[in-house]
Design brief:
The complex is a heterodimer of chains A (420) and B (142). Chain A is α+β, with helices and mostly antiparallel strands and 420 residues long. Chain A has helices at 11-18, 43-47, 56-65, 75-90, 117-132, 144-157, 169-177, 189-197, 203-208, 211-217, 220-229, 260-280, 319-333, 371-381, and strands at residues 3-8, 28-31, 38-41, 69-72, 96-100, 103-107, 136-141, 163-165, 247-257, 283-294, 305-316, 340-352, 418-419. Chain A contains 14 helices and 13 strands. In chain A, helix 4 runs antiparallel to helix 5 and helix 10 packs antiparallel against helix 11 (220-229). In chain B, strands 1-2-7-3-4-5-6 form a 7-stranded antiparallel beta sheet, with no helix packed on it. The N and C termini of chain B lie far apart (86 Å). Classes of the chains: A alpha+beta (420), B mainly beta (142).
């Protein structure tokens, strides 16, 4: 009975290294959209003390002075490499859950009884490394929560093989005693404070609490975590990819926006993109939210952020309906005199495209019914946007100030890596 | 009690039930004599790429491998899952650079160009050689 968690080491930074052999042992950081914050660091960069999520401008000078290499994020490339890694993992066991771009759970129950799980982990690691160039850590444990703990244990003990199998009670207890409770899967910052107040500081402390008491005082979710820490299995591999519950399209702007007439078309662009995503998921939504916010880094400037949700009585995925809702959401939250740095559209409350809930009363904002029109537009805009809505920004407006992006090595004929 | 007319339920508002019809149409005339012999068209990907997850495309630069039929700007198919052997054409990294050469394991290990104008690359002490993958094909466009 065991699960393995396969976790790619400093994934984005490792991707950047695949086709840049000159960057071996060189500190690498990857920046968020708009080159705002550090979102990935190579081991060398971590050793330099570059924190996760720190604003780039704060560490820029010292990082570059120490010959660090910086990249804007290249999600096209990372996505391709991730798909390759997951594809290889799927070849090992029949049941896998892709948990994020750089993590996957493997169900090892299907393996033969006498299989040495540690050796199996080492085999997976060396194969993924050879085939893709990506180094992975593998934590093997009786359940998901403990496999996360196992990964932490690899990091903490700096295990050279990057593979660990927590197989007996003693090993598990040692690992738990070294794990602060906030690092347990599912324990957030707020929960951490509550637990600390109750004298629960390590994962081992949490594992020792009676799960039923946890259920009473906290929640069923945390109770499940406690049971898993004790070695029970409560969470299973979720191999059916359930459809999304929310779609968010948001960007930081290249330049601050303080004018409503500039902001409206930008938000319209987000709404159009969000509606396209919604249709590709074959869903309809009945809530459209708009948010705006100023930059938290401009401390001297006045700050404002707000969100407005518009309810739609009849679910829709027609861009025209979503555009109207987006405009209705934006107008009340926009305030002049602020330098906005970011805005976005969130679509919520999904129902399947096929299901139709008829309202008892006539909906004053009856959605458009001509789905074929949207289908044609999607087809025409599939490769490159050719048809715009009147409220959109049609200029080749680039929201991102990204100029340190690596080539699309694996997805563009003109950007293939070069060999001599 | 007074009742106001709200609206009527139109037919298209009712949930649709899909009734399976025929998957294939039935031809009344003579069936195509080729229908039993249809095969999928030739797929270059299938022919050139055996292990997609481990295969990368790179672009060759220079004339050093002309003797093996790799011209300047050729696209090379590199399979990282194939273990190279003596005489394999490989992509390797040496001194932080990618090179494509023929791997010679004897009499002394070296990376051999396929062009007499280029010297072989021997691995000196302190130099690190890493084989990235085996080149399985080259695509030269004319």
């Amino acid at each position: 009975m065991a699960f393995a968690l396969v976790d790619c080491e400093s994934f984005y930074a490792s991707c950047e290294r695949i086709f840049r052999p000159d960057l071996k042992n060189i500190p690498i950081v990857v920046l968020s959209n708009n080159d705002g914050c550090v979102i990935a660091r190579s081991t060398e960069a971590k050793k330099m003390g570059i924190g996760m999520g720190v604003p780039w401008f704060k560490v820029r000078e010292s990082f570059l002075k120490q010959n660090g290499q910086v990249f804007s994020s290249n999600f096209t490339f990372y996505g391709d490499i991730s798909a390759r890694v997951m594809n290889i993992l799927e070849g090992f066991v029949p049941r896998i859950e892709i948990y994020s771009i750089d993590e996957a759970f493997l169900d090892l129950d299907t393996l033969k009884q006498n299989y040495k799980l540690y050796d199996f982990g080492c085999h997976i690691r060396s194969l993924v490394r050879q085939w893709t160039g990506i180094p992975v850590r593998i934590g093997i444990a009786p359940n998901k929560t403990l496999s996360k703990i196992a990964i932490n244990e690899i990091k903490r003990r700096n295990i050279p093989t990057s593979v660990i199998h927590l197989s007996n009670k003693k090993q598990i207890e040692i690992a738990l005693s070294h794990t602060p409770v906030r690092e347990v899967w599912g324990v957030g910052r707020r929960l951490n404070d509550h637990l600390n107040k109750a004298g629960i500081n390590t994962a081992l402390d949490l594992a020792k609490v009676n799960p039923q008491n946890i259920r009473k005082k906290f929640s069923v979710v945390l109770e499940r975590t406690v049971r898993e820490l004790r070695g029970e299995r409560c969470l299973n591999i979720e191999d059916d990819i359930s459809s999304k519950k929310q779609i968010v399209v948001s960007r930081s702007f290249g330049e601050r926006v303080s004018n409503l007439n500039t902001l409206k078309p930008i938000v319209s662009n987000f709404a159009v993109r969000a509606a396209e995503k919604l249709r590709s998921e074959k869903q309809k939504c009945s809530q459209v939210s708009v948010f705006v916010r100023t930059s938290p880094f401009n401390i001297n400037k006045p700050q404002h952020s707000d969100l407005k949700s518009i309810e739609l009585f009849t679910p829709t995925n027609d861009t025209r309906d979503i555009l109207i809702a987006a405009k209705r959401g934006l107008l009340p939250i926009f305030r002049s005199g602020y330098d906005y740095a970011k805005a976005g559209i969130i679509l919520n409350k999904f129902t399947n495209e096929q299901i139709k809930q008829c309202s008892l009363f006539k909906d004053p904002n009856e959605p458009k019914q001509n789905t074929r029109f949207m289908k044609y537009l999607d087809q025409m805009n599939a490769y490159e946007t050719q048809i715009y809505y009147a409220s959109q920004n049609t200029k080749k407006w680039s929201p991102m100030k990204q100029n340190m992006t690596s080539p699309k090595y694996t997805t563009n004929w003109y950007e293939l890596p070069k060999v001599n | 009690m007074k009742v106001n007319y709200i609206g009527k339920i139109s037919e298209e508002n009712l949930p649709a039930i899909f009734v399976p019809y025929f998957l294939e149409s039935v031809h009344a005339g003579f069936p195509s004599p080729a229908s039993d012999y249809i095969e999928s068209p030739i797929d270059l990907n299938k022919h050139l790429i055996k292990n997609g997850a481990a295969t990368f495309l790179v672009r060759a630069q220079g004339q050093s491998m002309v003797g093996s039929g790799i011209t300047d700007q050729a696209v090379l198919i590199v399979d990282r899952s194939i273990k190279p052997s003596h005489n394999s054409i490989v992509v390797a990294t040496i001194d932080g650079e990618f090179v494509c050469k023929r791997l010679k394991l004897k009499p002394r290990m070296c990376l051999m160009p396929d062009n007499p104008e280029y010297p072989p690359i021997f691995i000196n002490n302190g130099q690190e050689l890493e084989i990235v993958g085996t080149v399985t094909a080259a695509i030269n466009k004319f």
